[in-house]
Automatic annotation (TrEMBL):
The keyword RNA-binding does not apply. One of its GO terms (cellular component) is membrane. Keywords: Membrane, Transmembrane, Transmembrane helix. It comes from the Eukaryota. The chain crosses the membrane at residues 20-41, 53-77, 109-129, 141-165, 185-206, 218-236, 256-276. It is found in: Membrane. The keyword Transmembrane helix applies. Residues 296-315, 351-370 are annotated as: Disordered. This is Rhodopsin domain-containing protein. It holds the Pfam family Fung_rhodopsin.
Length: 370
């Protein structure tokens, strides 16, 4: 008599953990996508600027966020996520567990790609908005660290189990070994917190040195400081990782994966905030187009109408644009603009022995030495 093959249930959506994960993924897809689109609209339609490295990086980061959310959906709908491992095996079958562990193996790879591109987007933005030597050097140093950290994290995710198929070999049928995945996650998260804090603190001294109205300076600090929300989520997620049981990841990993998804979605969303100024013109109106100087500036006037301007910092341009642009000052450049205006005045008086017209010339020379 042939043995009857065991049938397994389809995975139902029946608990709060599943609903919470699905809801989080939907929001984490919609919100970053909306803000990235608004960012591109602000740059192209309002400021008429071409896309730059920062925009391309944030676009790539959005793709990785969407990919991670899709992986989360597979974990919930096909992998039995939120159910205990033994229950998944008994109710939903070995294929469900294989799907879950494959998704779990792909997670750190996509996460590293998303973190790398989102951070590089922010750093590229700093170089565009504040192209001064100190900022450029700082960005390059921090950027090199971020690249090395995430590339090493990606490579570790590939080789932590050898062969790679060992990542999803929950039945121990494949010969090989795996490192401590839990420790790997903890170190990734800890270094990520440090890099987040460094990147967020990087522009604040430059913003502080700007000679702006207090209201605008507070708004700028707010725009650059909202990234601390990402740090808060990352730190909270770090506290959840010790509760992840490697022997039962389907039943104990909900909060860790959920807040990891929130973390990257928030990071991509907040990276778009500084570019949304055209949508808030009540604060950054277009009527005031004056240029603001940062650092120490001095002006001297000669009795010939010449104005000499010496500045040791950078100037803010396009006050109503989609971004704050600080133009570097180059002390080596001497820019002189000579304007000559001639008025021709015709006299129709009754004095015959005088010239019928006179020429008056006014010359105004403005020398600007940044």
């Amino acid at each position: 008599m042939a043995t009857q093959e065991k049938t397994y249930e389809s995975i139902p959506i029946q608990n709060g953990g599943q609903i919470g994960m699905i809801t989080t993924c939907v929001i984490s897809m919609v919100l970053p996508t909306t803000l990235v689109i608004l960012r591109f609209i602000a740059r192209h339609r309002f400021s008429r600027l071409a896309l730059d490295a920062s925009d391309y990086c944030i676009g790539a980061a959005l793709v990785f966020v969407l990919a991670l959310c899709i992986v989360d959906f597979f974990m919930v709908f096909k992998g039995g996520f939120t159910f205990d491992l033994l229950e998944v095996q008994e109710r939903f079958g070995p294929d469900a567990l294989s799907t879950f562990f494959k998704c779990m193996a792909a997670w750190p790879l996509l996460w590293n790609c998303c973190v790398l591109t989102s951070k590089l987007s922010v750093l590229a933005m700093y170089m565009t908005l504040m192209p001064v030597r100190r900022m450029i050097l700082s960005v390059r140093v921090v950027g090199a660290f971020v690249i090395l950290y995430n590339v090493s994290g990606f490579i570790t995710g590939l080789v932590i189990c050898r062969p790679y198929a060992k990542n999803y070999d929950w039945e121990n049928k494949v010969e090989g070994e795996c490192g401590d995945v839990k420790v790997y996650y903890e170190w990734l998260s800890a270094i990520n917190v440090v890099s987040d804090v460094v990147i967020l603190l990087l522009p604040l001294p430059f913003v502080y040195s700007l000679q702006l109205a207090l209201k605008k300076k507070v708004v700028l600090f707010g725009m650059f400081s909202v990234g601390f929300m990402t740090c808060a989520v990352t730190i909270f997620r770090q506290t959840l990782l010790p509760h992840l049981d490697a022997a039962n990841p389907t039943g104990t990993g909900l909060l860790a994966f959920l807040f990891s998804t929130v973390e990257i979605a928030v990071a991509v969303s907040l990276a778009c905030v500084p570019f949304l100024r055209p949508f808030f013109k009540s604060t950054f109106g277009s009527e005031n187009r004056s240029k603001y100087q940062a650092d120490t500036s001095s002006y001297s006037y000669s009795n010939k109408g010449t104005k000499n301007h010496r500045s040791q910092g950078f100037n803010e341009l396009e006050d109503d644009g989609s971004e704050i642009q600080l133009q570097p000052v180059d002390p080596a450049r001497d820019i002189a603009v000579k304007v000559e205006t001639t008025w021709k005045i015709e006299s129709r008086g009754a004095i015959p022995d005088r010239s019928s017209y006179g020429n008056y010339q006014a010359r105004a020379t403005s020398n600007s030495t940044p």
